[in-house]
Amino acid sequence: MRKGFTLVENIMVIILIGLLFAGVSVYIQESINSWVFISEQKELLLEARGAMTRLTRELKTTNRNVNLTVHASSEVTFRNIQNDSITFRQDGTTLKRNADILADKLAIPGGLSFRYLDATGNETGSSNLIESIRIRLTIVNGQNKFVLESSVGLRMKRL
Q1: Alpha-carbon gap, residue 108 to 123, rounded angstroms
Q2: What number of CA atoms fall less than 13 Å from residue 4's CA on the CB side?
Q3: pTM for the complete prediction?
Q4: How high is the pLDDT of residue 41?
Q5: Closest Cα to residue 66, out of 134, 133, 127?
Q6: How far apart are CA 64 and CA 52, in angstroms?
Q7: Residues 125, 156, 61, 112: what is their CA dihedral angle, to the nearest 10 degrees?
Q8: Contact indicator for 131, 51 with CB cutoff of 8 Å
Q9: pLDDT tens-digit profile of 42-77?
Q10: How far apart are CA 142 and CA 1, in angstroms?
């Protein structure tokens, strides 16, 4: 009487284990891909929120009708209440505050856009009629895309 397994039995076990491992590895790979996707989304969201918070916070420090010097669709320049000149603009895929980079991976075109609104909420091109600014920030990285929008009411100038 022989003890042990035949060569055919061993090969069959190896093939079955290989098939089982191949099936399980598909689920493991999907889990890893999902984790990477969600991690990249969180990173983009944090970057976009930080940039939008900075943009809105600083735009609130300008006086309406007097300190807004440039108002284009992808750039705004203004003087804040300390009389510092501040420019927010899209430069390629980066959002810049003066020379500093606030965010990277902006969509091209339209990663940063401004709409200037009058008292009735209609778009205006006249700087003395601008009462609020609508901001749209679009950040992309591969399959991940975040679009944030916010609105800032400009301050009334004190006499």
Answers
A1: 23
A2: 5
A3: 0.72
A4: 84
A5: 127
A6: 20
A7: -20
A8: no
A9: 888 888 898 899 988 888 887 766 667 777 788 888
A10: 64
Element (H, E) at 95: strand 94-97
In DSSP notation, 21-43 reads HHHHHHHHHHHHHHHHHHHHHHH
Query: What count of residues does the chain have?
Result: 159
State the pLDDT at residue 157.
Answer: 58
Question: Count of CB atoms within 10 A of residue 72's CB?
Answer: 11
Asked whether the beta carbons of 108 and 92 are under 8 A apart, the reply is: yes
| Token pair belonging to 40 | 């990249």
**3-state DSSP assignment of residue 131:** coil
72-126 confidence digits (pLDDT tens): 788 888 888 788 888 999 988 889 998 888 888 888 888 899 998 888 888 887 7
> For residue 121, how far is the Cα from the chain centroid?
25
